[in-house]
Amino acid sequence: MLKPFTAIFAGILALNAGAAVQASPQPWGGLASQTGKIVAQQTGGTCKRVFDPKDTYANLRSTPNGQVVARLDNGITVSVKGNAGEWSKVEYSAGRVSGYIYTSLLTSCTGTCMVVADPNDTYVNLRSTPNGSVVARLNNGTRVYVYGRSNEWSWVEHEWDRGGMDSGYMFSRFLAPCGR
């Protein structure tokens, strides 16, 4: 009787370890729409997020420098199963696909907590791409999580009170560490 409950509990823990990410037209979700969510459950390996600071997605290839098998949007979580030089062998369980991605296009699954802090205004624009369209306006003091930086831009996620999530780019200078 205890064994089934242990398996259920382990499944719940695994689901909670997965990351909900929002897709964008170019990316943060691969298979989802701009407003859709994908919950990725990791099955062994090291959790990493796709982040290409020069684009909004990265190519998943059949072999290092091989044929493109999928386009993974920034923010997608993958499980790293091994390395081959500058390439990582990854599995994207939500898309049921695996392949190779350039290792420098992977970042930590755990974001750095920051708060919006513009001394000259009451909010900061969250944009779809650097200098792109405005996705949301986040008030000063709003908590976000930074997953990558590219020059003066930070790629962040913001979770709304109702469980929704926005992902996009903000000027790094308008972010301050949490707890200050």
Can you walk through the features of this model?
- This protein has 180 residues and is mainly beta.
- It folds into 2 domains: 19-108, SH3 Domains (SH3 type barrels); 112-177, SH3 type barrels (Roll).
- 9% of the residues lie in helices and 49% in strands.
- The protein contains 1 helix and 16 strands.
- The protein has one helix at residues 2-17; strands at 19-22, 37-40, 46-50, 57-61, 68-73, 77-84, 87-92, 97-102, 106-108, 112-116, 123-127, 134-139, 143-150, 153-159, 165-171, 175-177.
- The strands form 5 sheets. A 5-stranded antiparallel sheet has the order 8-7-6-3-9, with no helix packed on it. Strands 15-14-13-10-16 form a 5-stranded antiparallel sheet, with no helix packed on it.
- The protein is elongated, with a radius of gyration of 17 Å.
- Residues 1-43 have low confidence and may be disordered.
